[in-house]
Design goal:
27% strand; alpha+beta; globular; Dna Ligase, domain 1; Rossmann fold
Length: 434
């Protein structure tokens, strides 16, 4: 099966990842109309924003029928975990419209840490040792911390916690107390079940895979920066920047990733009959040259998407068609060897409480390109015709260069021209890799 030659696409989401997707899709000569639900102030330059909640499935159905949508692309994880793909497949009026993203069962690879770890165990994917704790075996969990793993202690909420459900603690007594707090609702229903993990020592890298459930293509890898402070200090965030390619992800290392992790993961998806037509985000730790899986996500990362997609030079709709219609093996993925670097600008107070509605000045007029950079909107809105802040992460500024330093310098030069009250960014993105 194929999509029509010109395609109407509905893209779900409204953050920096979705702006990057919208920007890339809009470059395709095959695009007829692109709708982004709900989008943000920046995505207006790529298509039409529509006031739709991605979790309101009946409203999505009505929209795709009314607007002759040929393909739905899901950006964030929540609609996937909630079963948006199953909703389409189970409705005879819209089951013919392909959804790029996994089924609800397959989305448990992100929606449940325990499910993912068990999947890895079944298919021989290298990962850290773990133990699952609920209110019924909390004492066993405390004993596991005391006798089976060494500090630092890793505690993960089993469910989705907006990227904030992971604690890494050096003190045993504190770890045991936090385990009880998590089970008592520290992260709401997400931590009714907690996975204790062995701590993996090394350096992280994110690997992205497009798959139609049978074949796959490995997209450019990336390294992101999670902590708010320079030198990787302070609280965890949704991501303060990213670079791609990653110098230590050599061809030899990436062959290990392919053979030991990507191949058995996709084979496991196929053998277990999971409906998976979408992207797999594999968070890895490079442990002395050997890759170990930290976690799966069932969609692209943010802000990693903002460095991965600008490095892809082949047609995005062609790639999405291959994923959706299980013809990915027929498609060609082309990637530039140049380096991409993204620096994220956040609101003052993030990742805690922060103000909203502050006017942003210096943005490119009528587009996304500003000098040598692409300005992706992560948390912006419109107020009285002005672009204003609407989230903790506000902008993701991406630049291409012949080196990490050249790319990051260009992003910092662009950021200097943009202003809003309380603007903050890390000044050391990529510097650890020089």
């Amino acid at each position: 099966m194929k999509l029509p030659q010109t395609v109407n696409i509905l893209l779900l989401g409204g953050g920096g990842r979705e702006h990057a997707f919208a920007w890339k899709i809009a470059q395709s000569p095959r695009l007829e109309k692109l709708y982004i639900a709900p989008g943000n102030a920046g995505t207006r330059a790529c298509g039409m924003n529509v006031d739709l909640d991605p979790s309101n499935f009946p409203a999505l159905k009505q929209f795709v029928l009314n607007n002759y949508i040929n393909l739905v692309v899901v950006g964030p994880e929540q609609p996937l975990v909630d079963g948006v793909k199953d909703y389409f497949l189970n409705d005879p009026e819209i089951r013919h419209i392909p959804v790029v993203g996994p089924s609800q069962e397959a989305a448990r690879l992100e929606g449940s840490k325990e499910y993912a770890k068990a999947f890895m165990a079944r298919h021989g994917v290298p990962t850290a040792a773990y133990f699952t704790v609920t209110a019924s075996n909390v004492e066993e969990g405390c004993e596991f911390l005391a006798s089976k793993v060494k500090a630092p202690y890793v505690l993960k909420a089993d469910g989705l916690a907006a990227g904030k459900g992971v604690l890494i603690i050096d003190d045993l007594a504190e770890a045991q107390a936090e385990l009880r707090a998590m089970l008592d609702g520290k992260f709401g229903s997400a931590s009714k079940k907690v996975v204790i993990e062995e701590f993996l020592s090394g350096i992280e890298v994110s690997v992205f895979v497009a798959t139609d459930g049978n074949s796959y293509k490995i997209l450019p890898e990336a390294k992101d920066y999670k902590r708010i402070g320079e030198g990787d200090t302070g609280l965890n965030t949704g991501g303060m920047g990213a670079v791609s390619p990653v110098p230590f992800a050599t061809p030899e290392f990436m062959e290990k990733v392919r053979a030991r992790i990507v191949e058995p993961t996709v084979r496991g998806i196929r053998e277990e009959g999971l409906d998976y037509t979408g992207f797999i985000f594999i968070g890895l730790m490079n442990c002395g040259g050997d890759p170990m899986v930290i976690e799966y996500n069932v969609r692209m990362g943010d802000p990693e998407t903002e460095v991965v997609l600008p490095r892809i030079t082949s047609d995005m709709i062609d790639l999405l068609e291959g994923i959706a219609h299980k013809t990915l093996h027929e498609k060609t993925l082309e990637v530039t060897p140049r380096t991409a670097a993204t620096v994220v600008c956040v609101s003052e107070g993030y990742p805690g409480s922060y103000p909203k509605g502050l006017p942003i000045s210096g943005l490119p007029a009528g587009g996304n390109v500003m000098g040598n950079s692409i300005v992706f909107h992560a948390g912006t809105g419109l107020k009285d015709g002005l672009t204003v802040t609407a989230g903790g992460r506000v902008l993701a500024v991406t630049s291409l260069g012949d080196s990490i330093r050249a790319a990051t310098d260009r992003s910092y030069e662009t950021i200097a021209k943009i202003d809003y009250e309380g603007k903050y960014c890390r000044r050391d993105i990529g510097r650890d890799l020089l």
